[in-house]
What we know:
The complex is a heterodimer.
Chain A: H1 4-13, H2 22-28, E1 36-42, H3 65-78, E2 82-86, H4 95-100, H5 103-111, E3 116-118, H6 127-135, E4 142-143, E5 147-148, E6 158-159, E7 161-166, E8 169-176, H7 186-189, E9 193-194, H8 197-211, E10 216-221, H9 234-240, E11 246-248, E12 260-263, E13 269-273, E14 281-288, E15 298-304
Parallel strand pairs in A: 1-2, 2-3, 3-4, 4-6, 8-10, 10-11, 11-13
Antiparallel strand pairs in A: 1-14, 5-9, 7-8, 12-13, 14-15
Chain B: H1 2-17, H2 20-24, H3 40-57, E1 60-64, H4 76-93, E2 99-101, E3 114-117, H5 118-124, E4 130-137, H6 138-150, E5 156-157, E6 159-163, E7 169-174, E8 177-178, E9 184-190, H7 191-194, E10 208-215, H8 216-227, E11 229-230, E12 238-239
Amino acid sequence: xxxxxxxxxxxxxxxxxxxxxxxxxxxxxxxxxxxxxxxxxxxxxxxxxxxxxxxxxxxxxxxxxxxxxxxxxxxxxxxxxxxxxxxxxxxxxxxxxxxxxxxxxxxxxxxxxxxxxxxxxxxxxxxxxxxxxxxxxxxxxxxxxxxxxxxxxxxxxxxxxxxxxxxxxxxxxxxxxxxxxxxxxxxxxxxxxxxxxxxxxxxxxxxxxxxxxxxxxxxxxxxxxxxxxxxxxxxxxxxxxxxxxxxxxxxxxxxxxxxxxxxxxxxxxxxxxxxxxxxxxxxxxxxxxxxxxxxxxxxxxxxxxxxxxxx
Amino acid sequence: xxxxxxxxxxxxxxxxxxxxxxxxxxxxxxxxxxxxxxxxxxxxxxxxxxxxxxxxxxxxxxxxxxxxxxxxxxxxxxxxxxxxxxxxxxxxxxxxxxxxxxxxxxxxxxxxxxxxxxxxxxxxxxxxxxxxxxxxxxxxxxxxxxxxxxxxxxxxxxxxxxxxxxxxxxxxxxxxxxxxxxxxxxxxxxxxxxxxxxxxxxxxxxxxxxxxxxxxxxxxxxxxxxxxxxxxxxxxxxxx
Lengths: 311, 240
């Protein structure tokens, strides 16, 4: 369960920026005196390159990659240190995918300078060769530390983790994919094998923290936010593995208006967040890197991609 | 800090430059960061891929004559998709299929008057799930219909019933006959619905599951193509 006490304590420590409407948060974001890291993120964009059609049953007129790109450009101009991340399922969902198989998404995401994305279950929709064909267009790594891809067409494009360094501050980023059996059809995932995400994360985070000397660890997870049936989800992951600071989630298409804080086995907080789907929202987390790296203070907000609301 | 350090030099340059400096600071026609408007470079890149997409996707499938929606307890669009699944399953199996069902949450669009294109069908049903046929006992089918009643109605085909004030199904008819708890019924649905994607747990207990290996998108596209003219018509299969 989410530790209520820790949540409340932390909520009080956050500046009011989190709770204020989009415009009001702006001023507060610049009060940090030391270095700052900004993370922009998406998940489950599902080939939503154009905004939703006007006759959509939900989200009519929202989203669109050109608007998301415009937002990212604007924030890049304001922030020196920025990470742009995606938690998987870029494939499948609009006619763009039927015609281009994800290649256009990869090309445009590279243009936006994405730093990494997790591999979602829909990334297997055109088989491993289909994945490879699209991944060739990606100028950023695909992360899945719990998928064994040796001797498959997927292998050249998949990495367990990456490390980004900004003025000496080291950020480790690793990916987790959902178990393949029962979620992806057998002939689509071929010889790729999925391993237990918790065991893999324990080893991976330990290596990022102690061998690679990371100050901050981000997990791009396509496990899903929360299940009732005991299947491994982001909540379980946060409760079971110490050393993860931030889980950017996907798969369950969960719109979290505010991040959820979970106490991990080391007694520290792990932040869980997820931005629904189809890129109708872009999430933003700002880390204040002054002072100690123990429970780094952060601010969280999201942008509604409606073509009307400004930064 | 940086600005303060550079300011004296900046002022000096300003003096040298005189009025010319101000002329150059007139706002540019195109703002560099257009948010919340779309980024023009990205839009242009996307548009360069559009013609090939549209060539394939603008193919006309049918004419929509009314605004057609999913509705509660029943709507014309829900009726059509459930009929499409049941008809196609019967055609493929060359066997009578009693019932069709699918959750409306799988669908992204409602239809507006005009041309229904292949692209719109792909937007309408964004996922490539398969047509499957399940075998349920009469008892399980009755459970299923009550699960439909409990959510105020859902796209169904082959059954008629009334939802009472306690959200229970009354007077269930399957293919114009009283539901027989003892016999078996064939139920057409999508693989997503059958595997637990919708809110119909009765489907998960099916004794037999046949994957017909056709995409439900193909099923809907073919159904609408043959129907050709689409209207907002319901037949009272679910009543309040």
